Amino acid sequence: MHLHILGICGTFMGGLAALACEAGHRVTGCDANVYPPMSTQLQALGIELIEGFGAEQLALRPDVFVIGNVVTRGERFPLMEAILDAGLPYVSGPQWLAEHVLQGRHVLAVAGTHGKTTTTSMLAWILEHAGQKPGFLVGGVPQNFGVSARLGERPGGAGPSQGATAPAAGGAAAEGPRMGASSPFVIEADEYDTAFFDKRSKFVHYRPRTAVLNNLEHDHADIFPDLAAIETQFHHLVRTVPASGRLVVNARDEALQRVLARGCWSEVQRFGAKKEEAGMLRARGEPQAFDVLRGSLKLARVEWGLIGEHNQLNALAAIAAAEHVGVTPEQAAAALGEFQNVRRRMELRGEVGGVKVYDDFAHHPTAMRTTINGLRRRIAPAERILAIFEPRSNTMKLGTMKAQLPWALEEADLAFCNQQGLAWDAREALAPMGAQAVVGADVDALVAAVVKAAKPGDHLLCMSNGGFGGIHDKLLQSLAARA
């Protein structure tokens, strides 16, 4: 087939493009403001990228147009209007993926407000380490793999729809063979809407046999009016899991318990309880080194380089999901000991004059708070954290959660916020923090303020779900010039 993908530079659509290429299809695509790294990754695959959404792209005459959720109706997207006028075939990205990649495979889907990318990467690596050669699609780049998506290998080199599921290491039988599928497929299951013509959450298309429900808070305020609306979407996901499937559910999350109370037809493995409970998977010890227990029985021990209680919970979720396809907790823990995390998750970008600069994807107040807390627990008591953040997501731009920012940032010694692009006053929102908070008019002003305040031993934690105007390199360059 020839696929022409509208909105190809998003992490999901870019991953879909890579999978389609690997499956042997011809892929072209378009997007606005095409820029690295996704543009260079796609071009390396031989994918022709077109700037903008002009109607002249109809001349490509693809077999199908695959529509990303960045596309809407109206004059901003003349290509979409031309597709509709001509009556040409089109489909959403999640639907195409479900029909052409996921069909017939044991799908393990990782859902939740926070930690989806990290947990999906952990799970894919656990299965890889156990010899199952999974396919995966992640909204980031797991450093153990170096790519965000792949179809997965088949025993004996079988094709995309042939073969049987590889057994887990140690001889444990996987869940997949009775489906007639080959290697399992691990996917980051986003609750954001599918397309302008399909307002269901993306994850409803995936029909997982194993579903991780990691946590649930109000987010994506541009499409969900409140938490209850998101709970309904998660309830729809639960409805798609078969009776022989498994739901892996965070026991600490009240919203998820409400979701299950609306109906549950599958086995449930809860995780994360702080005290011993029968059948519950839990951790005992610090996030960097902990025992994995079910009830009072020790199953395994994880010793790794990740920090923060949130990653400890992510690990429990991944271990419980992997167990459903025949990987023992002991095998999973050994894999996690070699897990290298995802790019842009507490990624050290450089150090100048004793000042370290990190890049992190945190953008929701809860994620910011847990990220700062994780770093705080790792560094020496005398060392400072300078939290530098960009309210860039649609939810943060709307100001829906601005009142939570002082709470999110309270463990930082200093907090620096970028005002650029906001319709609300960051100084007013951060006023409860007093002199602990600094607001810059733009990235350059922020860099100047941070460099002026920074001293040896400081940790500069930059948090954004975008490129943040190249602030990491600007900070390192300014620190070097100061030295």
Written overview of the protein:
The protein has 483 residues and is α/β, with parallel strands linked by helices. 31% of the residues lie in helices and 22% in strands. The strands form 5 sheets. It has a 7-stranded mixed β-sheet, sandwiched between helices. A 6-stranded mixed β-sheet has the order 18-19-23-20-21-22, sandwiched between helices. It has a 5-stranded parallel β-sheet with strand order 3-2-1-4-5. Strand 16 and strand 17 form a beta hairpin. Helix 5 packs across helix 8 (309-323) and helix 14 (443-453) packs across helix 15. The protein is globular. The chain starts with a strand and ends with a helix.
Structure classification: alpha/beta
- Which whole number gives the mean pLDDT? 87
Q: What's the β-strand tally?
A: 23
Q: Helicity, in percent?
A: 25-40%
- What spatial form do the alpha-carbon principal axes imply? globular
Uncertain stretches: 155-180
Q: What's the alpha carbon Rg, rounded to whole Å? A: 23 Å
As laid out across the biggest beta sheet, the strand order is: 8-7-9-6-12-13-14
Alpha plus pi helix count: 15
Strand content: 15-25%
Distance between the termini: 56 Å
Largest sheet: 7 strands, mixed
Topology of this protein?
Elements: E1 2-6, H1 11-22, E2 26-31, H2 38-44, E3 48-51, E4 64-67, H3 78-86, E5 90-92, H4 93-102, E6 107-111, H5 116-129, E7 135-137, E8 149-150, E9 185-188, E10 193-195, E11 198-201, E12 210-213, H6 227-240, E13 246-250, H7 254-261, E14 267-271, E15 281-286, E16 289-294, E17 297-303, H8 309-323, H9 329-336, E18 347-352, E19 355-360, H10 365-378, E20 385-389, H11 394-398, H12 405-409, E21 414-418, H13 426-429, E22 437-440, H14 443-453, E23 459-463, H15 471-482
Parallel strand pairs: 1-2, 1-4, 2-3, 4-5, 6-9, 6-12, 7-9, 12-13, 13-14, 19-23, 20-21, 20-23, 21-22
Antiparallel strand pairs: 7-8, 10-11, 15-16, 16-17, 18-19
